[in-house]
Amino acid sequence: MGKIERMRKLNKNYARLPFSIKGGKWGLSKKFVKGEGNLNADIMLIGQAPGANEDIYGRPFVGISGRLLDSLLASIGISRSEIYITSTIQFFPPKNRAPTNKEIELCREYLMSQIEIISPKLIILVGSIALKSITDMSPIMEYHGTLMQSDGIFYYPTLHPAAAIRIKRNMPIIQRDFESLGVLKDNIL
After folding, report:
1. Angular region, 145: left φ>0, alpha ψ -120 to 50, beta rest
2. What is the rounded distance in angstroms from the CA atom of residue 130 to the CA atom of residue 46?
3. Which of 6, 91, 95, 142 has the fewest CB atoms in 10 Å of its CB?
4. Residues in CB range of 181: below 8 A, 6 or more apart
């Protein structure tokens, strides 16, 4: 089975997750926001979870944070179409709250399957939730801008664009992280 079929099957099963949880324990939106992009990408980007705009449009990083992300990627010569973009969980947490550890754990096997299907050389971890869910490290301010490697994959944590938009002092930090990533990626890929 090729990557397209494998991802299609994975997404179909993942989209059913809210309906398989017993006892009404599901606290997220039931609308699935699947990852998108190049299934043969060398670079994968993992964010926290869909926001309100992503829930409406059914695509990851489409709001203000998405526009900043696109700009940061473009600044280092990466177009959105070259990479695969997904989230730690792919259902909107009401009121844009952080997903709970239980919600992250419920979705973890799907995220790990996405990574296995894409088989990237580099994963950009955007924000604390993505960093913790993949590496079990936190906080993001301690690890941002640091290249790590595990099991043949490089990981690069950085701030979430929303954190740079909401807290202006974070903007230079995320910009420096992406400048560093621009240099590092040429040695990795």
Report:
1. left
2. 6
3. 95
4. 76, 124, 156, 158
Per-residue pLDDT at 127 exceeds 80: yes
Alpha-carbon gap, residue 7 to 39, rounded angstroms: 8
Do 127 and 97 meet the contact criterion of CB atoms below 8 Å apart? no
* pLDDT at residue 188 in the model: 87
Q: Which of 116, 167, 124, 171 is nearest to 143 (CA)?
A: 124
List the domain boundaries for the chain.
3-188
Strands 43-47 and 153-158: unpaired
Task: Please give the structure tokens belonging to residue 84.
Answer: 């695969």
Structure tokens at 111: 């995220």
The second-level CATH assignment, the architecture, of 3-188 is: 3-Layer(aba) Sandwich (3.40)
Mean residue pLDDT across the chain: 94
Q: Whole-model pTM?
A: 0.95
DSSP line for 78-138: --GGGSEEEESS-BPPGGGPPPPHHHHHHHHHHHHHHHHHH--SEEEEESHHHHHHHH---
Residue 174: phi, psi to the nearest 5? -65, -35
Calculate the alpha carbon distances from 43 to 19, 54, 122, 154 in Å.
31, 21, 5, 10
Q: What percent of the chain has pLDDT over 70?
A: 99
